[in-house]
């Protein structure tokens, strides 16, 4: 069955430091999608990025970058020059594409990493 | 275009009371989901629906019922609330299975005394 692990429960950094959030996934499918969501202290869940299993190019969006490595089943998220506004819980998620018995449950979240950026 | 909305935002219940949480989406999405979020446990799937008139159990369905009579609405019911159901409840929708991300509502904070 699919599974997402985020081994870092909590991380604290000082503003302007770079920080990497780890995500390791398990799936039997060859076609799947990976996602990152941000949950700031206000509580809403904000979509950050989607990556498909056939595209291993790294992606950069401003201070955010994502490193996808199929060889290690990892999809890590790096924030460069962190800011206090980056303080949030970050969730990694996996979606398999192929239908299975419970295909509606094919979207699986990791437990989340709480990032605190201190001024 | 409101996206995904949830009603109510907050609610306090006494043990044994019943209530219904309403989720509505205006994006014509087929899939809808109900999650609960508890401290340190991430998001756990309660029930989901893959289309109007269909529902299915998720990871933690006990004590909850759902209905999807209209495509845009997904209702979560608690027939007899228990303190263990104190949580933040999130609704999400998704265009269909496969490639798309889930869009989340703002959440409902429920306290059962």
Summarize the model shown.
Chain A is built from no helices and 12 strands.
Describe how the helices and strands are arranged.
The complex is a heterodimer of chains A (119) and B (113).
Chain A: E1 3-5, E2 10-14, E3 19-21, E4 24-26, E5 32-39, E6 46-52, E7 59-61, E8 64-69, E9 74-79, E10 88-96, E11 107-109, E12 113-118
Parallel strand pairs in A: 2-12
Antiparallel strand pairs in A: 1-4, 3-9, 5-6, 5-10, 7-8, 8-9, 10-11, 10-12
Chain B: E1 4-7, E2 10-13, E3 19-25, E4 31-37, E5 43-49, E6 56-57, E7 64-67, E8 73-78, E9 87-94, E10 103-104, E11 108-112
Parallel strand pairs in B: 2-11
Antiparallel strand pairs in B: 1-3, 3-8, 4-5, 4-9, 5-6, 7-8, 9-10, 9-11
Q: Could you characterize the architecture of this molecule?
A:
The complex is a heterodimer of chains A (119) and B (113). Chain A is mainly β and 119 residues long. Helix content of chain A is 0%, strand content 52%. Chain A has strands at residues 3-5, 10-14, 19-21, 24-26, 32-39, 46-52, 59-61, 64-69, 74-79, 88-96, 107-109, 113-118. In chain A, strands 2, 5, 6, 10, 11 and 12 form a six-stranded mixed β-sheet that branches. In chain A, strands 3-9-8-7 form a four-stranded antiparallel β-sheet, with no helix packed on it. A two-stranded antiparallel sheet of chain A has the order 1-4. The radius of gyration of chain A is 14 Å and the shape is globular. Chain B has 113 residues and is mainly β. Chain B is built from no helices and eleven strands. Chain B has strands at residues 4-7, 10-13, 19-25, 31-37, 43-49, 56-57, 64-67, 73-78, 87-94, 103-104, 108-112. In chain B, the strands form two sheets. In chain B, strands 2, 4, 5, 6, 9, 10 and 11 form a seven-stranded mixed β-sheet that branches. Chain B has a four-stranded antiparallel β-sheet with strand order 1-3-8-7, with no helix packed on it. The interface between A and B is medium-sized, with 25 and 27 residues.
